[in-house]
Amino acid sequence: MSFTVLLVEDEQLVREEIAETTPWQSLGLELIATSADGVDGEAQIRLLNPDIVVTDIRLPGQDGLTMLRRAQVAHALILSGYTDFSYTREAIRLGVFDYLQKPVDSKEFEDALRGIASRIREEDQAMFSVLHQIHANTPELIMLPKSVDNHIINSVIGFVATHYGQPVGLAEAAEFIEVSESHLSRLFKEETGLNFLQYLNAWRVNRATEMMMDPRRNISEVALECGFPSPGYFAKIFKRFTGLTPSQYRDKKSSLKIN
C-alpha cells in the first residue's frame, strides 16, 4: 500500500530539490502536489486529502501549524530552519508530527518519511483489530465503545455524537471538555483503545452507512452531512474502515435486499 504526500514549502529551490530527489516510490509514497504557502496548502489538503503532509512552519499566508490544525491533518513531517522551542513544543503537544531541522539530511528525511508510513500502517492494523466487526443484520459496521469508566471520555463521546457533522477535531473536543489536547489525546487512547480521530471517523462512517440505506440519499451529500470535508476524503476513510468504497457498500446492501 502506498501513501500520498503533499509538500508545502515556500522556498522554491528547497521545494524543487525535495520533490525531485526524494525516492518517493521506493519509500512506498506518492508525491501528489506541492504548494508554496499556508493558505493554498490548506486548500490542497482539503481537496486532495493526502495521507502525509510535509511542511515548513514559517509560511506566507498562515504558518504551517495553523494550516495543519485547520485542515485536521493526522500525519505530518515538519521542516524548519528555526530553533524556536515554542514551535517544537506545539508540534509535540499535538502528538501527530515529526520535526526536522533544516538543512535536512536526505537520509534523515527518508527515515522520517519511512517512519510515518510505518506508523500509519500500524495504526490501521490496530484500528481494525479493535473496530472491524461486521454485522449482517444491522447497518452499523463498526462496534464503538459508547461509554467507559471515565466521565471525561464519556463527555467526549457525547461531544462526538452531537458534533460529528461539524468540522471538529481534538482541539475542539478538548476546548469543550476544558482539558489540554495532549491530556485528552492520551486519556482517550487509554480508555477506548483508539485515538480521537479514529473514533470520530468511525462514528461518522457508522452514521453514513445508516444514511446510505436510503437509496434516495446522494453519497456526496451524505459525506458532507457526516462531517467529512470532501466526498473524496469520505471515500478513502470509508474504504479504510470497511474495505469497500461507499458505492460498493451500497451496491452490496442493495443486492442482499434483492436476494
Give the proportion of residues in helices: 55-70%
Which stretches are poorly predicted, pLDDT < 50 over at least 5 residues?
Answer: 134-139
Per DSSP, what share of the residues sits in E-state strands of 2 or more residues?
A: 5-15%
Mean pLDDT across all residues, rounded?
A: 84
Helical segment count: 12
Radius of gyration: 19 Å
Order of helices and strands: EHEHEHEHEHHHHHHHH
**How many runs of DSSP E, i.e. beta strands?**
5
Question: How would you characterize the overall build of this protein?
Answer:
- The model is unreliable at 134-139 (pLDDT under 50).
- The chain has helices at residues 12-21, 38-48, 64-70, 85-94, 106-131, 151-163, 170-177, 181-192, 196-212, 219-225, 231-242, 246-258, and strands spanning 3-8, 29-35, 52-56, 76-80, 97-101.
- It is an alpha/beta fold.
- It starts with a strand and ends with a helix.
- It has two domains: 3-122, Rossmann fold; 132-258, Arc Repressor Mutant, subunit A (Orthogonal Bundle).
Layout of helices and strands:
Layout: E1 3-8, H1 12-21, E2 29-35, H2 38-48, E3 52-56, H3 64-70, E4 76-80, H4 85-94, E5 97-101, H5 106-131, H6 151-163, H7 170-177, H8 181-192, H9 196-212, H10 219-225, H11 231-242, H12 246-258
Parallel strand pairs: 1-2, 1-3, 3-4, 4-5
Helix pairs in contact: 2-3, 6-7
